[in-house]
Structures are given as C-alpha cells and as structure tokens.
C-alpha cells in the first residue's frame, strides 16, 4: 500500500512544529507548506536592522521543517491575499488582522495544493481557545467548512475535542495518540516539546504577521487614507516595516532610516522616490512618499536633520534628489523637538 | 576534454526573505537533477535561508561568494524533487 501523505501548514511557531511531529510519529509522510502574504514577520525586519544582527537571521518555517526533517514549500500568495485583507467576510481582529478569513484562505490553498500533488490530508497546529478569533470552538468548523477542506483537515493538538476527521476514520492516524489541548495556556505544548526533545523554538507573541501589530496597522491605514483607496503593492507594505514614518503634511510622508541597515534597504528605493541625504553629518536617508513642493522639501530636510548627528548644530547640509528631476543641496536648521508634532508620527 | 556546465542565473537582488527562497524554489522546479543555478542576492537573510531550503529539499550548495553588499549562492539541483514524490 502506498504510504499515506499529509501536508502540514507550517507557520514557524511551536504549535505547527508539534502538530507535524505528532503525525510524523505515526509513520505518515509529511511535507510542509508555508504562505508568503507580504505581511509575514519573518526575515525582513530581522535581516534589515543591524542591531538585530546578533540574532540568527533564520526563517522560522524553514527551521521548523529542518528540525522535522521534512520538505517545505513556500508559496507566494501576495496577490490573492489582497482580497482576504480588503474584504474579510468575518471582519478584523484587534487590528487589521483578518484572522478567520486568513485561516480559511490558507487552509483552502493548502488543500488545493495537497489535492494537486496527491496528498491524502492536511494538518494544522491550531488549538481550541488559543486565539480569540480564529481558534475558538465555534470558529474552527467555519475554517474547515469555508476552506472546502472539510474533514480532510486534521488538528492533531486538539483532535480529541473535535469530531473525527478523514485521517482518523480511515485509520491513517490513531486518534488515541492525538491530543486534546485547549485554552490559552502553553504548558501542554511546552511539555510535549520537551518530550520530543525540542529545546528551541519561536514563540510569536501577537500572531504570525504584522497585521496584528497596532503600529503597523496604523501605518497601513494612513497609506490608504493618503492615496484615497485601499490598494497596495508589495513594495508599499514592505516599506511600512522599515524606518520612522512621519507625515507632517497631508500630501507627503517622510520615511527615515533608523540605522545603517535600514538606510541600506531604503537606498534600494532611491530611483523610485524623491530622497534626501544628509551630507554634513551622519544621519538617516529619507524617502518622500507623495508629492512635495519646494517648501515641503525644505520642511522634510529640517525634519530629517532633526534625526541626524547634527541635530544640535546651527546648520546641516542636506542634498535633495527630486524624482525624475534635479538634485540640489541646502543648508537647514534642524527642527527642534518641540516643533515635531506627535500626530506627525504615523 | 571536460565540459564546463554553465550555471543558470537568477537575480534575487533587492528581494527580501523569503522571496529569494521562493524564486529559487520556483526556478529549481523547472530544472533537472544535476543542473546548476547561481542565485544573486542582497538580503543577508537569504545567506541562511537558501542553504536551509536546499538542505531540506535535497539540493547541494556548491559555493557562496561574497561581493559588495551582494552574494551569490551556487547550487546543484538534487535528484529528489518534491513535485515528483
Ligand atoms: S496573525 Fe496574520 S497570518 Fe496569522 S491568521 Fe491572523 S491574519 Fe493570518
């Protein structure tokens, strides 16, 4: 008989690691799948910011797959995800996180992939009651139903509290060896991790993506408000993860690198944006997002100077490169802290 | 006479993780075992992620060369492709 095959949704956190491990332990062939929405916490910020360079720059989903000794398929869903974020049937969580729709979408994509590649069932690391929106007893059936995966979806960590699924009724896995975890406590997972010998694992605090983050959500809301519609491209949402964002006037926003790693990253966008370089002192690279006139650019230069090492100097020299226009230099007085309004911070 | 295999090139510069891995994965799917791919990246994270992806998917890293804010990872496509399994 051919070996039973399962696709595991791997987020990179402990729960998906354990769920896949439980099923692997029952002799099932498991491969992982991970979705890139553009909002994932992985990589980007870790890699960009120099001060984080002590931390390993690993991608947690890849690391989990390596711990398990399974293959991992990372799927780019940036375009399709827009509809999930912009039109969530079940609304948002505390911030712009459409968790319930997002879960349904990911399970559906994983199910489609599984069927296209001859896999028998899916598994995910969800635990009843773990998260307020997508992992409640009443919302779990919603994910299984709306994704179309139905009983092909097994949740090994809380399966004993749910009706049997295909993997159990067909005898591909032994229900007795699955778990009945529920609630917000992480203790059962930590005990299971210890049992399997996993001593190191990622512990995402808020969730698996930036949409659960209040500051990030407010930057995204500001972007939509400023452009007058809720469209976005990948570069837009990646840029929101980098730098200090200030909107001193409604027609433009200034993005300032907070350290060398961010300056390097922003440098990659110089061709697309009007940008500012501080010439006389060490300081941030600034990108102007929006349309700024000469007066706006002088204001932006003073604001950028506020965040350079010459913030207390009488004059700071700033070079302005206008997008598809000329470059000019100017001497400006750095803006004093008292003039930088709180509401400018996006 | 020895034949020199010319690596296929993939430009993943300015892409942030995990995009360099995704682009590498999508290219490797179209290649055959033994083919060589050179991926040029600028995100330091890719230096860890592409080798990790190769290890778990059975591809071999031949070389990692560093340049000015860029590096190139050269890999050899392995026998066992997930899409045939
Ligand atoms: S935290 Fe983000 S990725 Fe995770 S379910 Fe919610 S919206 Fe989706």
Mean pLDDT of chain B: 88
User: Approximately how much beta-strand content do the residues of chain B carry?
Assistant: 25-35%
Helix percent of chain B reads: 25-40%
CATH class of the largest domain in chain A: Alpha Beta
What would you note in describing this structure?
The complex is a heterodimer of chains A (346) and B (85). Helices cover 33% and strands 16% of the residues of chain A. Chain A has 346 residues and is of the alpha/beta class. In chain A, strands 6-7-9-8-10-11 form a six-stranded antiparallel β-sheet. In chain A, a hairpin with a 5-residue loop joins β10 (316-321) and β11. In chain A, α1 packs across α8 (187-196). The mean pLDDT of chain A is 92. Chain B has 85 residues and is α+β, with helices and mostly antiparallel strands. Helix content of chain B is 26%, strand content 28%. Chain B is built from two helices and four strands. In chain B, α1 (19-28) runs parallel beside α2. The interface between A and B is medium-sized, with 31 and 24 residues. The site of iron/sulfur cluster (SF4) has 11 residues of chain A, from α5.
Key structural traits:
A: 346 residues, Rossmann fold, 5-stranded parallel β-sheet, 11 strands, elongated, B: 85 residues, alpha+beta, Translation Initiation Factor IF3, 4-stranded mixed β-sheet, 26% helix, globular, binds iron/sulfur cluster
Topology:
The complex is a heterodimer of chains A (346) and B (85).
Chain A: E1 5-9, H1 14-24, E2 29-36, H2 44-48, H3 60-68, E3 72-76, H4 78-86, H5 99-116, E4 121-123, H6 140-147, E5 153-154, H7 166-169, H8 187-196, H9 214-227, H10 234-239, E6 244-249, E7 252-256, H11 260-267, E8 274-278, E9 286-290, H12 294-306, E10 316-321, E11 327-332
Parallel strand pairs in A: 1-2, 1-4, 2-3, 4-5
Antiparallel strand pairs in A: 6-7, 7-9, 8-9, 8-10, 10-11
Chain B: E1 8-12, H1 19-28, E2 36-41, H2 46-57, E3 60-66, E4 71-76
Helix pairs in contact in B: 1-2
The structure holds iron/sulfur cluster.
């Amino acid at each position: 008989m051919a070996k039973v095959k399962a696709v595991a949704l791997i987020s990179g956190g402990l729960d998906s690691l354990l769920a896949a491990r439980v099923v692997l332990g029952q002799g099932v062939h498991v491969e992982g799948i991970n979705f890139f929405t553009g909002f994932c916490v992985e990589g980007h910020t870790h890699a960009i910011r120099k001060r984080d360079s002590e931390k390993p720059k690993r991608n947690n989903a890849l690391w989990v797959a390596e711990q398990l000794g399974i293959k991992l398929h990372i799927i780019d869903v940036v375009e399709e995800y827009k509809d999930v974020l912009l039109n969530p049937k079940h609304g948002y969580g505390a911030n712009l996180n459409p968790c319930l729709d997002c879960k349904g979408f990911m399970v559906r994509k994983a199910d489609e992939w599984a069927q296209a590649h001859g896999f028998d069932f899916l598994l995910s690391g969800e635990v009843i009651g773990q998260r307020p929106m997508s992992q409640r007893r009443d919302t779990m059936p919603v994910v299984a139903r709306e994704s179309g995966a139905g009983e092909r979806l097994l949740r090994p960590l809380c399966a004993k509290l749910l009706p049997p699924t295909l993997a159990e009724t067909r005898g591909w896995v032994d229900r007795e060896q699955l778990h009945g975890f529920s609630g917000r406590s992480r203790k059962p997972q930590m005990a299971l991790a210890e049992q399997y010998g996993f001593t190191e694992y990622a512990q995402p605090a808020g969730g698996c993506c930036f949409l659960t983050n209040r500051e990030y959500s407010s930057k995204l809301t500001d972007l939509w408000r400023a452009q007058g519609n809720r469209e976005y491209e990948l570069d837009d949402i990646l840029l929101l993860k980098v730098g200090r964002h200030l909107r001193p006037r409604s027609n433009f926003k200034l993005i300032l690198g907070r350290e060398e790693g961010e300056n390097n990253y922003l440098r990659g966008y110089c061709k697309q944006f009007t940008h500012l370089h501080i010439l006389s002192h060490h300081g941030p690279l600034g990108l102007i997002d929006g349309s700024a006139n000469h007066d706006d650019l002088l204001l932006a230069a003073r604001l950028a100077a506020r965040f350079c090492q010459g913030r207390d100097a009488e004059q700071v020299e700033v070079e302005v490169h206008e997008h598809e226009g000329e470059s000019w230099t100017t001497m400006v007085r750095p803006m004093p802290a008292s003039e930088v309004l709180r509401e400018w911070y996006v | 006479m020895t034949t020199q295999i010319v690596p296929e090139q993939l430009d993943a510069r300015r892409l942030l993780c995990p995009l360099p891995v995704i682009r590498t994965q999508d290219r490797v799917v179209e290649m055959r075992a033994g083919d060589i791919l050179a991926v040029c990246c600028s995100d330091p994270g890719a230096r860890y992620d592409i080798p990790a992806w190769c290890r778990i998917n059975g591809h071999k890293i031949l070389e990692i060369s560093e340049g000015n804010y860029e590096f190139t990872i050269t890999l050899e496509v392995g026998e066992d492709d997930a899409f045939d399994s």
